[in-house]
Every structure is written in structure tokens, then in C-alpha cells.
Amino acid sequence: DILIKSLYRETKQYIGKEVKISGWVKTVRASKAFGFIEVNDGSFFKNVQIVFDEALENFSELGKLPISASIEVIGEVVETPGTKQPFEIKASKVTKVGNSSSDYPLQKKRHTFEYLRSIAHLRPRSNAFSAVFRVRSIAAYAVHKFFQEQGFVYVHTPIITASDCEGAGEMFRVTTLDMENLPKDEKGKIDYSQDFFGKSANLTVSGQLEGEIYALAFRNIYTFGPTFRAENSNTGRHASEFWMIEPEIAFADLADDMDLAEEMVKYIIKYVMENAPEEIEFFNSFIDKGLKDRLNNVLNSDFARISYTEAVELLKKADVEFKYPVEWGCNLQTEHERYITEKIYNKPVFVTDYPKDIKAFYMRINDDNKTVAAADLLVPGVGEIIGGSQREERLDVLEARIAELGLEKEDYWWYLELRKYGETKHAGFGLGFERMIMYLTGMSNIRDVIPFPRTPGSAEF
Ligand code: 4AD
Ligand code: MG
What we know:
The chain is of the alpha+beta class. Helix content is 31%, strand content 23%. Strands 6-10-11-16-15-14-13-12 form an eight-stranded mixed beta sheet. Strands 1-2-3-5-4 form a five-stranded mixed barrel.
């Protein structure tokens, strides 16, 4: 078989030649003497048009092919200048190799993304999702390529873990305890020492802490894997299961961390634009008219870098009414993040040095003793896509911080030993892969960039 992608990419070399393709029927139109079948073979989001006529012995059967039936086609590739597609296949033989029921839900017409979500087992067959998930695959490859080319070691941090990296308590517990009959300790609390691992365990909210272990041995590492958060936020940017890319670099500070993040984001964009140009064109035409210009601008500009304190000043002077008022010390909401990156800068912006009270325990305390060496990357259309920081490497400062936050020192004994044995300046960040895909495609709902979305109240399959 020849793949449709090759027919589109190397059309010239196939013109006038006989090819064999196999795929699924997308549409059929037939008149008395001839007809057209649009077929897709999965290799590309575009279809190929097959022309057939009454010279074929099964001509009348072909006119009645059901949508999504699978077929094999042998025919000649002919140029069709001036039409929608650059070529078509003039069939000498079309064989139906598999049937499809006539109530197939994806008939040729525009469907809403919402409807398509309700048939998540069929939606990858639609043009838009074919393009989204191919871009997702190519972007994932770009991530590995970027880090591997620079010698970063890919570390598989655990999915099941006993630690809570973000300290936000948004963890899914992993347990084999009998829910009807939970064992209790003397204080009447659930006794997790009787659980499977002899302690309480959960699905990871971030591979960072374990990533630090490897950075302090291999210098530069990254993780790229599934991440789970039991956040009860029903937004278009939050999923309960998402993928995160987390590099961790030793002998590096926050500025090095931001340099790496900026380089990585640009690399992924460039790689996807070069390797999925037709898909990007498709998104630019049908999903987000400004997409290509915006992505090109990103490649050609330096990301802005402002401190949280400056950001708050800018927001206070803003000419719009925010739903959540801004005060120094508050968390930046999506509306604030988007105002900064879209209205003030119109490009990606790093916001740095957040108040320590709204950030995680592991971030390095700045000399002002009020802020931490953190950096979030905000981008137009999405908001925060990256959260990162320089890590607190000073054992005494970290111990004091853990105590201040009421965390159990024993739970972090190994994390503290990383400072005790070979204290090293280091930093890292986490890129939400789905948010990156939203940025690359212009898709506006996270449910539409992950193959099997899990969100509060919804987990099909
Ligand atoms: O800002 P976050 O919480 O940072 C961390 O987890 C750090 N431990 C990362 C590190 O320094 N190694 O999450 C990082 C990114 C966010 O910027 C966002 O893009 C994404 O992960 N993210 C989510 N994406 C989808 N759904 C959710 N519920 C997400 N929560 C975070
Ligand atoms: Mg964050």
C-alpha cells in the first residue's frame, strides 16, 4: 500500500502511476455513470478522492458503500488542477474489505467538539482530532529530541509515590484497603500501616522530588509522564490526569532555568511547524486564524521576564475590572495571567519571584525573605503553561521552611539528605504537555488535546 501522506507530500512522483491504497470511506457520491469516494487511510488528516465509473463490475455496489466501510483501491494518480485537491485516483478496482453499519455516528457534517467528546472512541477519526493527535505525537517526539540532543537523561519517576510534591493535598490515594471496613489506629484514624505498602500512597502530582535525586547524580535529567491531580476545578485548562515534562538541572539557577524553558518551547514549536505543516495550516484555517503568525512571532522574539511585584503593579493599573481584585500576596488567576501575556506583552512572559506563602516548600527563598526564586511561564490564549523554580539547596533553610509549614521532617528525610550530601545549586520546571498542545493548535479545551480525558465527574473507558 501507498500511504495517503506520501501521495500528498510527493504528489509529483506518483502522477500517472498506478497505486494501491487501503482505508475507510468518508463520503460517497454517485450518479448514473460515475461516482466519487473520499477515503482516509489514517496516515494523514486529509482524504483522497477516488473516481470510479460504470466500467467497474461492482459499480452499483460502490455507490451504496456505507460511511466508514474499509476498502482497497487500485488506480492511477491523476492531477486535478484548479480543484480543491491537487490530485485524485482514477480507480480500476475498488474492493470492499470490511463493512460498517449505516447508523455510524460520524456522518459527513460538522460536529461540535462537545458532541465528539461524547464519542471519544470514534473522534480520532475526524479531521480535527486526526490533526490534534498527530501533532501531539510529533510534539512528544520533539521533547525527547530536544533533551536527548543535549545529553539529558530520561528518568522514569514513579507513578505511585508516598510523597506529596506540591503540598496541595490534591492527591488520588492508592489503596487496597476494604472501604467498608477500614482499619483504625488507637486515635480512630485510618491505619495505613495495614495498607498494601505499609503506609499511605498516592498517584504522583509531580515527578520533581524524585527528579532532583537523579539531577544530583546525572546533572541534567528530565521526566515526561502522566501526572494526577484531584483538583476539583472544572475548567478548560485542568485535567485530573495530564502529562508533564519536568527537567531538573544541577549547577544552575533560576535564570538558567528560564533560558532552558524558553529554548525548549521554541524548539517544540519549530519542530512541529516543520514536521506537521499541513496540520498547522489546518488549525490556522479552522480553529484559530492568528495561530501561525503567533507561533512565528514566538520563534522570533525573546520572552518577557517580569517579577511578580511588577506584575501586580501592572495589573493594578489595568483598564479592566477583574473578577478577582489584585493585591500583593494574592495568587494570579487566569484572568490576570492572560491580561499580562495578551494585553500587556502579546507574547510569552515569565513572571518571577512570587511571595513564598503562595508557593511550594522546596522553592529557594530570596534574600528579601519574602519571595522565592520561582518562574511561571504565561502564554497568550492559555495562561500558565510552565511552573518552575530554583530549589532550596541550603539544608538549614530548607529544614526551617519544612518546620514553618508544619510538614513532617521524617517524610522528607531523603530529600534533606540530598542537601546534606553534596549541597548543589539546582533548578527545574514542569511544562503541562496538554497546555503546550493547546498553545500549538489553538484548541481551547484541554479535553480535546488528550486522547482520553479525565476530569471531575467524567472518566469514560
Ligand atoms: O505549576 P505546577 O504545579 O508545578 C509543579 O508541579 C512543579 N513540581 C514542576 C517542577 O518544577 N518540576 O505544574 C506545572 C505545570 C503547570 O504550569 C501546568 O502547565 C501543568 O503543569 N498543570 C496542569 N495541566 C493540566 N491539568 C492540571 N490539573 C494541571 N496542573 C498543572
Ligand atoms: Mg503552577
